[in-house]
Amino acid sequence: MKMLNAGRGSVRFLSLNSAAPLRTKKGRIMDSIIRVDHAGEFGADRIYAGQMAILRNSPSGPMIEHMWKQEQVHRQKFEELIRKYGVRPTALLPVWNVAGFLLGASTALLGEKAAMACTVAVEDVIVEHYNDQLRTLMEIGNEDDKEILDTIKKFRDDELDHYDTGLKHGAKQAPFYEALTNVIKLSCKTAITISKVI
Question: What's the predicted TM-score (pTM) here?
Answer without folding.
Answer: 0.81
